[in-house]
Write a structure and sequence with these properties.
Blueprint (H helix, E strand, L loop, with lengths): L4 E10 L4 E6 L2 E6 L16 E5 L2 E6 L1 H16 L7
Antiparallel strand pairs: 1-2, 1-4, 2-3, 4-5
């Protein structure tokens, strides 16, 4: 099973190598954006939400999709459907 986590692009760290720093759950890490580059290039991804798996962004998400996914992750962490009791 593969898991991917939504993260927000907080800054471009190396445009030439398509690398950016993303944040999810207060944790920042560098990821590769090569798979999600569009016509706007890497700079267009600043502040975008991406789905990250093993250091690679696999898809661009809307803010609503990211929020829904993060809510499901929170439910898993709490162990309770619908959030905390």
């Amino acid at each position: 099973m593969c898991l991917a986590v939504p993260a927000r692009v907080v800054r471009i760290s190396d445009a030439g190598r398509h690398l950016a720093v993303v944040e999810s759950g207060g944790v920042q890490r560098e990821v590769d954006l090569s798979c999600v580059l569009g016509e706007g290039g890497i700079l267009a991804l600043q502040d975008a939400w991406v789905l990250v798996h093993v250091g690679v962004a696999l898809a661009v998400l809307s803010e609503q999709e990211a929020a829904a996914s993060l809510a499901l992750w929170a439910e898993l962490a709490d162990g309770e459907p619908g959030g905390s009791p």
